[in-house]
Amino acid sequence: MSDLLRTLGAQPLGYGPCRALDHGKRDPIVTSIYLSSDNPRWMPKTEADLQAAVDGGLFEESHHLDLKKAPNSKGDNKELARDLSSFAVHGGTLIIGVQENKESRTFELAPQPLNGLPEKIEQVARTIPDPPLTILTEEISAAADDGTGYLIVHIPASPVAPHMVDSRYFGRGDKTKYQMGDAEVVALHAQRRNTETDTLTLLRKEMEENPLRDVGAQSHLFLVAQPTAGRRDMCLPITGARD
């Protein structure tokens, strides 16, 4: 069984009916793929994994998945920042190095230079959206071994969404991003305030449970940390699982 089928697991992971790819006994039967920040069950490890998904017609831009080439200009960086910000509302995955053929309405591999690409994407996420975004990236080298390849960019659902780019807020629809209206922005800001209130409640709880209550006799610093993202494999040493 190939790495692609192993990473898929035993359950179908897409929305709607599953589609199958069967090129004979040697090749795996790929049912569907579903890439999202909350449930990134299918994780390509090699260029062959990506090609298998292309051959099976399984790539489809969705609420949680987008496919692009690497940004090459300031305008591209702004567009990338809008894409990342739109995914930050509910979480999503961006694959750089897979592009759409507009005429045939299919996708094809387009390996991109990897040197400095992860740093560039992270810099865009950290400097253009307001507030800054947290992302996770994973590289896949091309079989040609020429310094090109693919970058998997995971955008976790952000506790401080929405994120503004050029004084506008963006959300993600079924397949593309859109500029959010006032009502949606107000609702997300209210959700952010509730999260901040929860954090303050936890902080007060820590202060109340402090065994050394006399803060005047000894300086105290109280901290409550809430992680915004974690690598997929961070708990493997604890669980003993392979993936």
UniProtKB/TrEMBL annotation:
Residues 61-180 form the Schlafen AlbA-2 domain. It comes from the Bacteria. This is Divergent AAA domain protein.
